[in-house]
Amino acid sequence: CIIFKIDKRKIRESRKIIFRNLMSEKFQAVVIGGGPGGYVCAIRLSQLGFKTACVEARNTLGGTCLNVGCIPSKSLLNLSENFQKAKKLQNLGIEVGEVKLNLEKMMKNKEKSVSILTKGVEFLFKKNKVSHFNGTGSIASANEVLVTTKDNKKISLNTDNIIISTGSIPVELPGIKFDEKIILSSSGALDLKSVPKKMVIVGGGYIGLEMGSVWSRLGSEVHVVEALNYITPGMDKEISSEFLKILKKQGIIFHLETKVQNIKNEKNSAKVSIQDKTGKNSELIADVVLISVGRKANTKNLNLEKIGVSLDNKKRIKVNKEFRTSTKNIFAIGDVISGPMLAHKAEEEGIAVAELIAGQSGHVNYDLIPGVIYTSPEVAVIGKTEEQLKEGNIKYKVGKFPFMANSRAKTVNNAEGFVKILADEKTDKVLGVHMIGSHVGEMIAEMAVAMEFGASSEDIARTCHAHPTFSEAIKEAALSVEKRAIHS
Ligand code: FAD
Q: Rounded to the nearest whole angstrom, what is the distance from the C-alpha of residue 227 to the centroid of ligand 1?
């Protein structure tokens, strides 16, 4: 009886596959890519009454973010920070035995977090009746997406609207290929089987610094090679230089104003030839090299040229304010278009485009997209930097407050960093907030809401903040805009 049931199910399944191979299915919207842009867009479209499909090439949903980005990196950042903290507990009066690293278990824990969250997206698709197709999508025509499955079966999806959300991929250095053993992209750096004795990171952006923090905490000697004379390009310079100071204190070695000339993969190690600003050449021998010089839009396999979807000068898909490409019913969102490559920016665009397709007025406020670096201490920013205000000839006032003077930060021995608020000189409207310190990645949401509502620094200063909390530093920084901070 059991055998009979299994056979019947198998027959039903194979019939379904054959049916899909022969027939095309009709949808009102097909989203290509199941990352934070794509899956959020598909769910919102379905909520708005559209018969929606989402095509994802990976076996799991969630895109770069859930599989090889935000989530695994934050898992390792958390666990490596705990490992380091555990080693220092003795200084705080907590006696523990010898603290040892079990990297295999740490990686398993990371994989568990990834698996729970990617399955969570699958559940959300079922709940919202989004049809999920596992395969590579390409655009056959403005109304047809062709899905090629792993076993090379073709499924044709007929649709009124196509939303491209195929994300981004890491950039390689010319002539240097990722092998994910010695020459790593961020994906390889998230999946090392042992702690490298020495790691060279090319690029001082947030992904490189987060990964550098992880491996440095677990015992690697980490070198960061950066062509500029500062790290985290685009960030307020005062925060960036404080961040650099703190990371140096933590043991990360920086080679600024230094260019990588060549990287030789020598099977068990790599030889990185560098040249500093004076023209002096030297070599770094490392167990692994993480190339973290940026990511590029992923437009592979989409057949864009044939369909007539235009790209911009950086090879990203060109869209108008409504996320419409040069082809009327084809839209694009997330890392594959311009703007900061961040999961929450992709999600906002996913919702906005769904609402626009439904005739509503979805929009994204690009002036207020927060950015967070999840190192210890964290860095969190929103709005304009001091450099941008100067460049735009906008007169501003500055309020600053150090965590050294914040009672909660002092109590928990975590008092590095400061909060900086930039407000318009005349109107007092908050134009930018830049923070480095513990918990600032959570605290930035307060400022995002305040700034969306057009808050002045006085509004923040007159808002009661609970005591003792790290967020009191925001109130004090706001008070300090008018030079009336109480605790410093
Ligand atoms: P993606 O997440 O890249 O998803 C695109 C999906 O499309 C992929 O799953 C891909 O398999 C699929 N795909 C591509 N082509 C096809 C095709 N032809 N057919 C079918 N499927 C296709 N951002 C943050 O906001 N916070 C962070 O802390 C953070 N940390 C990061 C750490 C690392 C190490 C990395 C690499 C990135 C991090 N990011 C972070 C960036 C974030 O992951 C991306 O901005 C975000 O995932 C972009 O979402 P997306 O939907 O545009 O694209």
A: 26
Q: Cβ contacts of residue 394 below 8 Å, gap of 6+?
A: 384, 424, 431
253-255 and 221-225 strand pairing: parallel
Q: Give the integer Cα–Cα distance in Å for 404 and 434.
A: 16
Q: Is the pTM of this model over 0.90?
A: yes
Report, as residue numbers or ranges, the catalytic residues: 467
> Ligand 1, closest atom to CA 350?
51
Asked whether 161 lines ligand 1 (CB < 6 A), one says no
pLDDT in tens, 27-69: 999 999 999 999 999 999 999 999 999 999 999 999 999 999 9
Residue in 276, 288, 293, 274 with CA at minimum distance from that of residue 205? 293
Rounded Cα distance, 234 and 205, in Å: 10
* Residue nearest (by alpha carbon) to ligand 1 atom 37: 69
Ligand 1 in contact with 32 (CB < 6 A)? yes
Taking the C-alpha atoms of residue 475 and residue 61, their distance in angstroms, rounded to an integer, is: 40
Are the CB atoms for 316 and 300 separated by under 8 Å? no
pLDDT in tens, 318-360: 999 999 999 999 999 999 999 999 999 999 999 999 999 999 9
Task: Please tell me if the CB atom of residue 33 comes closer than 6 angstroms to any atom of ligand 1.
Answer: yes
From residue 152, alpha-carbon distances to 126, 136, 146, 269, 308 in Å are 25, 10, 12, 38, 26
Ligand 1 contact, 35 CB (< 6 A):
yes
